[in-house]
Amino acid sequence: MSTTHDHGHDELEPRDTAGSDLALRQGDDAVDKFENPGFGPHRPRRSDVEPEANKRAERQVVALFTISILGTIGFVAAYFALPPGETIASMRVSNLALGLGLAFALLGIGLAAVHWAKSLMNDHEKAEDRHAQRSSDQTRAEAVAALKEGAQDSAIGRRGVLKGALVSSLALFPLTIALPLIGEVGEDWNVSKFKRTMWARNKKLTIDPTGRPIKASDVTIGSVVHVIPEGLHETEAPLDEKAKAVVLLVRLDPRDIKSEQGEGWSYDGIVAFSKICTHVGCPVALYEQHTHHLLCPCHQSTFDVADGAKVVFGPAKRPLPQLPITVDDEGYLVAQSDFHEPIGPSFWERLR
């Protein structure tokens, strides 16, 4: 039977759906109509047919494991010989040396494992039918036999140098993780230094980097000022102590303030928050005036200044700590005290 369109188009043959309907009715049985293509022909590698190529591949794998070993040794040596120090230059050199050591330690193991698998291990494709999760005892015994066969295929038992390089690189690599966690011998483990900064009662807020004291009347609504404690640049405090004290000062319309972390911690709409993000410690410096949001450029954590700097977006889990402020008799902005909680990311004694 044929049909004709009203607009004079050519006749079209109706679609034969009998075959598809039969396949639907048969369900899984319809799969039997398709032949299993099987595996393609196996192509031997040069290392399979040429003994010299096989030995060359083994030497290459050993060399890659040796690179990993040297990388780990270099990391350990750099950790003790090149401490970060107090200057940006010394920190840069220390981080570069540690990073290169860790990179070669990881890269050597990874490349060696891939090259070993591609050039020395058995590359024949195998397929197994799916079975119940709990295999029979016979199947489990066959699995153990297959593992032994795989170990024989890798020839690890006959390659002493290769086995030694593998064990050495894997045994040494954990040092690159353990050393930074354990720390140097005699390191100060007093975590109370994370809980305080250079801010103190009646310490004036000064503009960064000039150090000029700032009056409340100098801050207009919508403006943002980066501030530091008075006399910060004149002190001999370590660089990390100075970095912890940086603060962001924002002035809002007092009617826009929804909440603050402590009663009376702001002054006439002026609020001050730590500039150190509570995620991983990046500097929070991008302010959106219309929404009163502070943005961390590293991982996009967003804080609402009008609502106690609570997190509104991103991976940070805690609000930015608020610095309690007021004004002195001359109208200068001063701190009421230090921060009431540790600034920056969480640590082992600061889980929230």
Automatic annotation (TrEMBL):
<keyword id="KW-0408">Iron</keyword>
<keyword id="KW-0812">Transmembrane</keyword>
<keyword id="KW-0679">Respiratory chain</keyword>
<dbReference type="InterPro" id="IPR036922">
    <property type="entry name" value="Rieske_2Fe-2S_sf"/>
</dbReference>
<feature type="transmembrane region" description="Helical">
    <location>
        <begin position="94"/>
        <end position="117"/>
    </location>
</feature>
<comment type="similarity">
    <text>Belongs to the Rieske iron-sulfur protein family.</text>
</comment>
<keyword id="KW-0411">Iron-sulfur</keyword>
<comment type="function">
    <text>Iron-sulfur subunit of the cytochrome bc1 complex, an essential component of the respiratory electron transport chain required for ATP synthesis. The bc1 complex catalyzes the oxidation of menaquinol and the reduction of cytochrome c in the respiratory chain. The bc1 complex operates through a Q-cycle mechanism that couples electron transfer to generation of the proton gradient that drives ATP synthesis.</text>
</comment>
<dbReference type="Pfam" id="PF19297">
    <property type="entry name" value="QcrA_N"/>
</dbReference>
<keyword id="KW-0813">Transport</keyword>
<keyword id="KW-1003">Cell membrane</keyword>
<keyword id="KW-0472">Membrane</keyword>
<feature type="transmembrane region" description="Helical">
    <location>
        <begin position="61"/>
        <end position="82"/>
    </location>
</feature>
<dbReference type="InterPro" id="IPR017941">
    <property type="entry name" value="Rieske_2Fe-2S"/>
</dbReference>
<feature type="compositionally biased region" description="Basic and acidic residues">
    <location>
        <begin position="26"/>
        <end position="35"/>
    </location>
</feature>
<feature type="transmembrane region" description="Helical">
    <location>
        <begin position="164"/>
        <end position="183"/>
    </location>
</feature>
<keyword id="KW-0560">Oxidoreductase</keyword>
<protein>
    <recommendedName>
        <fullName>Cytochrome bc1 complex Rieske iron-sulfur subunit</fullName>
    </recommendedName>
</protein>
<keyword id="KW-0249">Electron transport</keyword>
<feature type="region of interest" description="Disordered">
    <location>
        <begin position="1"/>
        <end position="54"/>
    </location>
</feature>
<keyword id="KW-0479">Metal-binding</keyword>
<dbReference type="InterPro" id="IPR005805">
    <property type="entry name" value="Rieske_Fe-S_prot_C"/>
</dbReference>
<feature type="compositionally biased region" description="Basic and acidic residues">
    <location>
        <begin position="1"/>
        <end position="18"/>
    </location>
</feature>
<dbReference type="Pfam" id="PF00355">
    <property type="entry name" value="Rieske"/>
</dbReference>
<dbReference type="InterPro" id="IPR014349">
    <property type="entry name" value="Rieske_Fe-S_prot"/>
</dbReference>
<dbReference type="InterPro" id="IPR045603">
    <property type="entry name" value="QcrA_N"/>
</dbReference>
<keyword id="KW-1015">Disulfide bond</keyword>
<keyword id="KW-1133">Transmembrane helix</keyword>
<keyword id="KW-0001">2Fe-2S</keyword>
<feature type="domain" description="Rieske">
    <location>
        <begin position="244"/>
        <end position="334"/>
    </location>
</feature>
